[in-house]
Amino acid sequence: MVIRREFRIVLPLTVEEYQVAQLWAVAEASKNETGGGEGIEVRENHPYETESGEKGQYTNKIYHLKYKVPVFIRTLAPAGALEMVEEAWNAYPYCKTVITNPDYMGKEKMSLTIETWHKPDRGELHNVHNLPPEKLAKRDVINIDIAHDKIKDSDYKPEFDPKKVASAKLNRGPLTDPNWRKTCEPHMCAYKLVTIEFIWFGLQGMVESWVQTAERKVFTNFHRQVYCWMDKWAGLTMEDIRAIEDQTQKDLNEMRKGGELKGTKEK
């Protein structure tokens, strides 16, 4: 069974600003989710070029999971099943990420693919991913409002509330107007096409449903942080970002070995 959903996230940023903002926020958020034996291990992070001439940055990461998935999966899954591999090809403004569990399930039984286009619009493009008619007919579109969509009480932090946070450096926000996505300047949209293929008898329906719910939660909370961290990443260059990523890779390896469990924990 295949599930396909397209999440559209409008932000009060330029496409150029978002490239820096996203990478800075990924590095910062990774540290907030790593510790106590769990979290993110960066194995590779380097430029790539394909035979067709596409250029970008390739990353390979392992997600060491146990308490970050629902208890019914933890109970039934054997050791090794909760270590996921993420490969990403960032040829901005297009990016592709593939998450698999090759050691236990194999790529043919479990894969989560996220393809993202970043465009200078407000989410009006009907088929930015150029899906053929048969796939387009089965695609669901979900629009995310980072300021006004409801989030879990346990996820709420006032410092990550776009309705309360404004940028002194960029002179933007807070996003108090319910119609801000239609009026904000500058503006851009991240179109994230999520495709899930999962074959595991007895768990398929539950896992697919949980992953899609988790993706919406991750996209919403992450982009709330991207916005609220504006004054931290504003003014940074891509050279600054690569240096931060190198240091973060070293930090994550140390943090994962010790300390306490951090970040999201599922029950």
How would you sum up this structure, described in words?
The chain is globular. The chain has one domain: START domain (Alpha-D-Glucose-1,6-Bisphosphate, Chain A, domain 4), CATH 3.30.530. The model is unreliable at 67-76 (pLDDT under 50). The two termini are 26 Å apart. It has 267 residues and is of the alpha+beta class. The chain has an 8-stranded mixed β-sheet. The chain has 7 helices and 8 strands; from the N terminus they run βαββαβββαβαβααα.
Q: Describe the biggest sheet? A: 8 strands, mixed
- Uncertain regions: pLDDT < 50 for 5+ in a row? 67-76
Number of domain modules? 1
Strand residues, percent: 25-35%
CATH topology: Alpha-D-Glucose-1,6-Bisphosphate, Chain A, domain 4
Number of DSSP helical runs: 7
By CATH's scheme, which homologous superfamily applies?
START domain
Secondary-structure element string: EHEEHEEEHEHEHHH
Number of strands: 8
User: What does the radius of gyration come to?
Assistant: 18 Å
Instruction: Report the structural category.
Output: alpha+beta
Overall CATH architecture: 2-Layer Sandwich
Shape: globular
**Percent of residues in helices:** 25-40%
Given this structure, which CATH class is correct? Alpha Beta
Distance between the termini: 26 Å
Order of adjacent strands in the largest pleated sheet: 2-3-4-5-6-8-1-7
Mean pLDDT: 85
InterPro entries: PI_transfer, PI_transfer_N, START-like_dom_sf
Organism: Patiria miniata
GO molecular function, one term: phosphatidylcholine transporter activity
GO cellular component, one term: cytoplasm
